[in-house]
Amino acid sequence: MLFGGETAESYHDEGLTAMMKGDLDRAVQFLSRATQADKTHMGAFHQLGRCYLRLGQVQRAADILSQVLSHKPDMIPARLDLAYALIALGQMDAAQDQFRQILNGNPENWRAHLGLAQVCFNEGRYENAVALASAARTQGGAAFSTLFLLGRAAKRAGNAMLSEEVLKAALALIDKSVELTPDAPEGYFLRGEVCFAQERYAPALEQYRAAEDRVEPNKYYSVFGENFTRVDVLAKRGLCLQRLGHTEGAREMGRQILAVNPEHPAGKTLAAL
Questions:
Q1: CB of 270 within 8 A of CB of 251?
Q2: Mind listing the pLDDT tens digit for each residue in 157-166?
Q3: Angle at 219 between CA 27 and CA 270, to 5 degrees
Q4: Which residues contact 113 (CB under 8 A, 6 or more apart)?
């Protein structure tokens, strides 16, 4: 029996709790029940869409989030999530339209500026990405997601000084997180991401190994806008080994990944080296 009874709100709350714990399969079950119990509960639909997005079922997520916005067009968090789903689907123009709709009503929404920066980064327009991520930094502060994207975009745009400055700042944020929760994998994974962006592959490999030591096999992790699973950590380790010239080790990582997820793109690439 759920605390509060078999109601849409109780199912919604249980779904959110499961989602926060990284148990997305359980979260989907509860949130689906919430939407069945109350087809007008757009909060439950929104969170269900977010779950599917983190599970990699991107088209399904986009469909649900579009449904939410058809009922609540002013629900900015759902529009942001839809825009990122569209980025994952490769629909950059459609994603850009969603971010611009947000900025039309709220020109200082830093998350929308950061989303536009992500679109530019994905399209190889790195100088535009730097400008937009810098605007997000001005409006939203030194969030990890902003610094991480700005650092990578600046590097691609040839601004090594800016890239190094902001990636060091991103790393400092993560160091604080690791100090507070040394047994959690998230901080080590993000340390690895920053080191990888800096092309420091040996330290990145060390951090990914530390994350793997702490990650649970069937759990989904989300921190500062970055989502990952144990398989994703293995993929990052494999990419580091590839960059370091350890081809056989990278292949072995690929084989381990495919044993768990035969369709994992990085796993296929590594195994075929």
A1: yes
A2: 999 999 999 9
A3: 130
A4: 99, 103, 132, 133, 135, 136, 139, 140
Q: Over the stretch 26-41, which tens digit does the pLDDT of each residue have?
A: 999 999 999 999 999 9
What SS3 state is found at 226? Answer: strand
Centre a 10 Å sphere on the Cβ of residue 207 and count the other Cβ atoms it contains. Answer: 26
Cα(247)–Cα(253) distance, integer angstroms:
10
Question: CA–CA separation, 156 vs 145, rounded Å?
Answer: 17
Q: How far is CA 87 from CA 4, 58, 141, 227, in A?
A: 38, 10, 23, 15
pTM tops 0.85:
yes
